[in-house]
Amino acid sequence: MNSIDRQQGAKHKQNYEGSDAIEKIRELIDKSGSCFFVTSTTLNNSHKSRPMSVQKTDEAGNVWFLSAKDSMKNMEIKADTDVTLYFQGSSYSDFLELNGHAVISDDKAKIEELWDPTVKAWFTEGKDDPRISVIQFVPDSGYYWDNKHGNTVAGIKVLISAISGKTMDDSIEGTLKV
Q1: Is residue 34 part of a domain?
Q2: Residue 4 is inside which H or E element, if any?
Q3: What's the whole-model pTM score?
Q4: DSSP class of residue 13?
Q5: Which domain holds residue 140?
Q6: How far apart are CA 172 and CA 81, in angstroms?
Q7: Which of 5, 39, 95, 101 could form a disulfide with 76 if both were Cys (CB 3.0 to 4.6 A apart)?
Q8: Segment 124-130 mean pLDDT
Q9: Residues of 129-150 as b/e, b for ≥16 C-beta within 10 angstroms?
Q10: What percent of the chain is modeled with pLDDT above 90?
């Protein structure tokens, strides 16, 4: 039992599995919209972590990205499909770590579905740019840190705790198993 749980009776752990885990994943990703995409290989001593915008999170919990076929990220995925994603929805809550594997394709229908005009900054020829690939991230597990009642209530509880000296933590965390 951690020190917060010893100081108060509130429950701070909630694990999710299956469809409940997928619902929590989608909720947290929707608050963030982008993540750090971390590959597991070090080809050419490259950086293994980079920011990525999420194009879609589907009903199965898969996270979809558009990426350049010639990127170091794509080369790293071809060498090792294990990927970890890190999300942060706000300064104080909505943190998410997802572990899984990535699948690269050049599915034109999926590119069309995921296309957003802002992506043209990277793919200047638009949807038909020959460099576009799709990355499907398939999660298998994860961990989240959040608050129970939103940032306003959590902030008030922290303020009251600081003044009173009594722990009133509003956090909740747990495992996610898809």
Answers
A1: yes
A2: helix 3-7
A3: 0.84
A4: B
A5: 17-147
A6: 30
A7: 39
A8: 95
A9: beebbbbbbbbeebebbbbbee
A10: 69
